[in-house]
Amino acid sequence: MNNHGLTLVPPRLTPVLDSFCRPAALANRHFRELTRASGKAVPVQVALEQADGSVSHFATAVFPEQHPLAAGNFTYLERLMKFLLWSRGGFRVHFSGPAMLGQHLQKYYAETPTGEFDAHIMGDRIYEQPFEVRITQEIPPARASTTPLGRHLDGCRIGFDLGGSDRKVAAVQNGECVFSEEVVWNPVPQSDPQWHLDQIMDSLKRAARYLPRVDAIGGSAAGVYVNNRVKVASLFRGVPPELFNRRVKNLFLELKQAWGNIPFEVANDGEVTALAGSMALGCNGVLGMALGTSTAGGYVNRDGHITSWLNELAFVPVDYNRQAPVDEWSGDYGCGAQYFSQQCVGRLLPVGGIELDHALSLPEKLKRVQALMEEGDYRAAKIYQTIGTYLGYAIAHYADFYEFSHVLVLGRVTSGPGGDMILKGAQEVLQAEFPELFSQIHFHTPDEKDKRHGQAIAAASLPVIGRQSPGC
Question: What is the pLDDT at residue 357?
């Protein structure tokens, strides 16, 4: 099997409910091995530039234009660029390599629906700069931007975590959680941002009742946030563009003002996942993954800081089969959201032989699967086994782009015995296919309460309280 000239390698451990999965990690490794073996590898360097001047580098190689395997060059590069854009971010791509491939990338981002989606989100929505691919002989020097994240536990704090099917809130008093709550909601189809604001405010007020005062508020939410402003967020997909620009972008600034302008910080939910893992483990070099309505990713580097990278693992490709499931938002195939989320559970239900009412929401379907798993149903087990195999190959893929020794996996999909099966399946993949990673990477999962509420508690530690807070 191949994808427009790129050889796709079948996995040694086939996902039990997806025999056509062709992991990105295997295809990329095979391509690199062949280019090295050819003795004629052509170097390619790319630099992704962000609006704050941060620049990240990535280097690889392709076949010379006349080589018989050169047909796979563009697919290899385009999928790699997809990963880089959504994991690292950037509105400008500096490309040093064969001019024809650079021109092909320019055309892809200007003329294809999936390329235009990426270009629009990166350029117009996130960095508010025109997206471009520059072909050059010399890329700009790398420039990293890292900052400490959270870990502040003094005073009386509220933390919240906004997911696509539920929102969570926690009241934290000098590092101790004194109240936590989970409320089911359905924000994605809502078209009026006031509805979102009212729902979030309701949770904050309920938590405030358990504190003598509120010194700071921290939030975790799916999407991209810069200086507390919403750039891109699936929670607000139902809001018309004009209203998004007018109300949603500054929604959290509006909430901050409503709470008397106390310290108020909002971060991507994946970043808070990684922070929660780093705090709980006392370790750095942590990749965090939250398997919920979608897939959230976050990264704490080996210095214990976050970078300016996006870490939007919902959009990075993990399966290179052209017939892989398609992401409903971007229209692209094989992306993480369809493999590590409630969407994946819903997709695998009919394949696994479980028939549920089509009218049920994805959270309700997940609950049914979890109940079946508790009863020892082999069909439910196959769903979790499949996700575990997916995860193992994805972790190997992520390891080509991130430096980490610890993986924290949480989220609603990991609740119950199915979560243990997911981690076991991932470890089996690393042991069988990537033994060098198996000895280096350690998987972690919080207890059941922290799986559901740990994110909100970690989010509470985000803001810095300017003055010394007296004891609560």
Answer: 94
